[in-house]
Amino acid sequence: xxxxxxxxxxxxxTSTVERVVTVLLMLGLAVLLLIASFLGLFFAMASDGCxxxxxxxxxxxxxxxxxxxxxxxVVYVVALVVVVVRWxxxxxxxxxxxxxxxxxxxxxxxxxxxxxSAVG
Length: 120
Fold this sequence. Notes:
mainly alpha
């Protein structure tokens, strides 16, 4: 039985330019992560509509804040792991930060919708 080929024996399939672009995109994603996480905390203002006879669900507002503020961190860590694994396997990585941006933005919006739907 033959031994499996190691990743060191594979020819490189990615260029230096692609790796630089990936690093720059990951750095940009890190900046956006901080901004999105900070702005996700502002969904706590959804509770401002909870006055008088308006019924609100505080736990649901809290869940929306956690999703909006926490999901960018989770998405970034997953994207970082995927980039490292794909680099080791010598596969293209430029698209990973872009996909993480889309997924992170969608989860941030979902968190906002969860918090906003708790009012009324």
